[in-house]
Amino acid sequence: MDSDAVVEIQMSSVSIPSEAALNESYRPGYTRLCPVDVPRLVDVARAALRLDPSTIPVTGLRILGAGVFNKVFFMQFGSIAVIARVPFNTPAARDPVRIISQIATLDFLSIHIPTVPVPKVLAASPDSQSPPCAPYVIAEFCKGTPLTIQEWYRDMSAASRDRAIDLLADMWVKITAPLPFKAIGSIIRRTVDPHSAMSRMGGAAESPAFHIMPMIPQFPKKWTELVDPSAETRAGPRSIAEHWAARMKEQRDDIVAAFPDEDHSVLVWDNAGSKHTLGKLWQCVRAMQELTDIAVSLDPLAHAPAMALMHADYSCWRNILFSPDRARIEGVIDWDDAIVVPRDLAALYPEELTHHTRGWRVDPPDVFAIPPGTLYEDEGLWETAIEETKQRRMFREAVGRRDPQLAELYTDRRARLRRRVDILLRDGWYAWLSRNDWVLGQGLEEARALAS
């Protein structure tokens, strides 16, 4: 059997396969377990839909996908299709606060930004002691499929690709529309009882009140610590100055803990595997402090502050689901790391328009010509970079037709600097070292020029 083939398993309510059996059907040799009790997971989904197990059996049960932190199960009950998202047994994946915030974000979108198609949550539990023996989210199945790399680069006509870019811009404008929130961070419900907030068999809860808690660290690793449960009841910072100051303190504390002897000749590795001295790292810390202080003062929306929700992985190859004819967007998924930020920080591009950008995925430099002396074998990369420059301009123009303010933030030099500073603060001191040429040179020069 081809490794990419998916075998659908038909079964009655009394012959539901185990997770291990579904693994083998998903991909021969795939063995990673959540673990989860699949028959009980099916029971939870059926109960959420209020279906009688004696009349409507589950069919088509299979693993739809498996990533680093989650596994997604597909199941069909008659004409109704649902998915069950179950995290693997790692602390960050099963962090109750993370899961509660993820569900709150989907509920907020469904209620307050209904023009953005997201999966409707039917039932959820952040508790590893739930009946399926694992946390879970049961949601309606979103139709549509992501574009493929083959489609994007080879199969789509120029007109079809241009239409896709227009659709991506239209959806991004909807996602990043100004919000009534006054704080920076992650969306959470006001209730502090996770079970009353999350459990809703048979449909969505009444429109609840939402608030912004301190930002849950994005893109966690297996060793990422659990979020303090008390953070649910605290408000996020009300200014970017407060948010960035907290990030700077975290990084300073981390450096001091890692290198307590303060020997500036000690070698330090960055996130690209290059070596630097501890002295160079402290130079970067001082430069980042200056960059942060200047960036705080350069708010292009200071006269009319606005917050926006930002999807952290806006990619049409993964999380944007298109109709079969690619003429519309059917769904936007994977809201795990979505955050509320000042709107100028949300002026970002889809990932597919920033691949060949010499490292800066945020506000990549435009390329209009192949540099003289480029090797023949490298010309293709430069040609792609030139094409992506054109596509980003097309994306901005499409945004501008719908939201001129947001479009201006893409090219505003103050906003561009703030976005780079924000990304560096998010990625931490390892990134400051790997970007030390910018942090200590070009970035500081540009910041000082803008400040003057």
Automatic annotation (TrEMBL):
Q: Which InterPro entries match?
A: AGP_Transferase, Aminoglycoside_PTrfase, Kinase-like_dom_sf
Identify the species of origin: Rhodofomes roseus
Full protein name? Aminoglycoside phosphotransferase domain-containing protein
- Locate the Aminoglycoside phosphotransferase domain: which residues? 64-338
SUPFAM superfamilies linked: Protein kinase-like (PK-like)
